[in-house]
Amino acid sequence: MSNTSSVTPQTTPWKQPLDLLLLFGLLLLGLITPFAATSFGAATITSSDVLQVFSHKFLGLGESMGVTERIIWELRLPRVILAFIAGAGLSIAGSVLQTVTRNPLADPYLFGISSGASFGAVMALTLFSQSILWLSLPLGAFIGASLSVLMVLSLCGRNLSTQVERMLLSGVAISFMFGAMASLLLYFSSPQAAASVLFWSLGSFAKASWSGLILPAIIVSLCTVIILLFKRQIVAMRAGDETAHTLGINVGRLRLSMLLLCSLITAILVANCGGIGFIGLMVPHTVRLLFPGKYPLLLTAAIGGLFMVWVDVLARTLLSYQELPVGIITSVMGSVFFLFILGGRSAKRI
Amino acid sequence: MSKQALTTVLAVSGLGWQLNGLAILADIDFSLAKGQMLGIIGPNGAGKSSLLRCLYRFIKPTTGQIQLFGEDISALSAKAFAKQIAVVLQDTPHHFEMTTTQLVSLGLTPHKGAFEFTNASDRQVVAQALVKVGLADKANQAYESLSGGEKQRALIARAIVQRPQLLILDEPTNHLDIRYQIQTLELLHTLNITVITSIHDLNLASALCDELLLLDKGRCLAKGTPKQVLTEQRIAEVFDVCCEVKVHPQHGNPLISYFYGYHLGEKAAHQAAVDANSAASTVAADKGATDV
Predict the structure, then answer these.
(1) A250 with B78: Cβ contact below 8 A
(2) What pLDDT score does B267 carry?
(3) Which residues from chain A sit within 8 angstroms of residue B68, using beta carbons?
(4) pLDDT for A294-325, tens place per residue?
(5) Distance between CA atoms of residues A259 and A248, nearest Å
């Protein structure tokens, strides 16, 4: 025990040059993304067109660009924003859930949310007419998702030592239950309905509109703010339930409220964009590997959002004649990128 | 009682805890004066950890009262309680990706409100705690990469940052080699706060604790100074071993030497020697030891 050591410990984070470089790169990407992402798509639009439209809309400079302006303003921009909100929300929910359940495999769909939502969506598709599907499908998905969360919540005990385990197990059970019921309904429904459920379940931002953005934007940002308020407590949960308890945290209550917030985020997103897999699992881990030892929640959200925007750009440009579901691309890209980072990091470490 | 209240940090009376109708702890009374170090000793399963868990409110006792500075601990809010009592537990979860500094900073948790960022003076407190436990040069290392003794010191630094009136430790010397065992307990003495720690090694407890509380089957068998608690007869009864207690040449507290090959735990031997008293005296005669 060398008390003679006069070294003042370096406690300020974000001082490594690599971290700063990464942050700078992200900032740059964040700045060009709105312009670049809106210029990709079926209609040929250049970045300078986008700039002109933005300056006309935001600053009142220049003239309206007619069709181009409508494409950018009414179709692509809401879509880019929805993609960002979805990516950010799913990433932050995944990150928080992985921490409070101390399960590295936790993702936003952990508690049967996606199968609950699918069940709700299938119900809506099979029971209601196609004409009101724009309303009944997201509503059904939201109700199904909320139902599964409420069931998990009512099943998870107050006893701290068994709480996480019960939560995870009841999530699995409920997931299978809703999955079976959705499959049953699909089995007896028309091929058309089955196809639309499949497309919905793979995720898409094609239906984005300004009015549709309001609710996801409000809910995701509100939940994010609340989560940030409890960041210190969430980080302390990593030390274990008992230690967190001795640090003055009401562990059971914190875990339940975080589960509720994350479920709210996931439910509203799954209802609006379908089930976009892998991103809530992958982005938090990627951030953890890129910035080891830190817990940058907001950065996780930003990276998740940007990633999602670019995945959506790929989804609408990869094939010239049709759109790909984003869920497929997130899974393919995500797994490859994830393995790449994992390999690079472990090679450096060991 | 009112005179004592000024200096008494913790007062436990009639404490009992039952789990599924089974009494894990029963009739435990003790009080602890400011600045003292209390060692909780006893065989495995005696209820040491359960007693500590009652003290830091992780389990709610079935009966009895625990008072911290004269106030019932159940009346305190979680945050207020964490400002008074810090706890160092045995193990941290795996995949615990934090630097030493980040781990130590966790001690700030009860002192910080929502949206209150870690400021320069907090960093100062963390840095000082690291210097105090001699880990200043390991501040930015991953906690997982520290040695057992360093991990224990990092956890103690976290407790220092919590600025408690009372520090509770559960087996802080477990899995440590003898140098770190001594170092860890001596470090606790330098902190000048009231300490309660459970401890396995009786010689270490004798050397470094001001007071001892001997638990067996959830009951308090003895409490007092090491000299009062650690007698040959008690150790033989409670731990089922043969030993000789002498005076330690340096600190003057009991020094226990164990004898081997006496399987008092075997049922036949146990029944033959109806009371441990006679067994102990037989052993003493065997070894030609003088009466205590």
Answers:
(1) yes
(2) 44
(3) none
(4) 778 899 999 999 999 999 998 888 887 788 88
(5) 20
How many domains would you assign to chain B? 2
CB contacts, 8 Å: B134 with chain A: 1-3, 5
Residues of B in contact with A102 (CB under 8 A): 93
Q: What is the pLDDT of residues B176-234, one digit of tens each?
A: 888 889 988 999 998 889 999 999 999 999 999 999 999 999 999 999 999 999 999 99
CATH number at residue B8: 3.40.50.300
- The answer to whether the CB atoms of A10 and B95 lie below 8 A apart is no
Find, among B156, B3, B166, B20, the residue nearest to B88 by Cα: B156
Burial B145-182 (b: 16+ CB within 10 A, else e): ebeebbbbbbbbbbbbbbbbebbbbbbbbeebeeebbb
Reduce the DSSP state of residue A238 to 3 states and report it. Answer: coil
Together in a domain, B194 and B81: yes
d(C-alpha A81, C-alpha A33), whole Å: 11
Segments forming the whole domain that contains residue B208: 4-225
Nearest Cα to Cα of residue A124 among A170, A182, A168: A182
Q: Given an 8 Å threshold on Cβ–Cβ distance, is B136 in contact with A8?
A: yes
Average pLDDT, rounded, for chain B: 85
Write out chain A residues lying below 8 Å of B79, CB-based: 248
Of B196, B225, B254, the domain-final residue: B225
Q: Do B82 and A239 touch (CB under 8 A)?
A: no
CA distance B83 to chain A (A): 8
Please tell me which of A84-93, A147-156, A175-184 the model is most confident about, judged by mean pLDDT.
A84-93
**What distance in Å separates the CA atoms of residue A151 and residue A155, rounded to the nearest whole number?**
6
Q: What is the pLDDT of residues A209-234, one digit of tens each?
A: 888 899 999 999 999 999 999 999 99
Comparing alpha-carbon positions, the chain B residue that sits nearest to A161 is B58
Ranges of each domain in chain A: 82-349
Q: Which residues contact B43 (CB under 8 A, 6 or more apart)?
A: B216, B238, B239, B240
For B106, the closest of A9, A236, A250 (CB atoms) is A236
The per-residue pLDDT for A52 is: 80
- Tell me the CATH architecture of domain A82-349: Orthogonal Bundle (1.10)
Confidence band for B292, pLDDT divided at 50, 70 and 90: very low
ipTM above threshold 0.85? no
Q: What is the pLDDT of residues A277-287, one digit of tens each?
A: 788 888 998 88
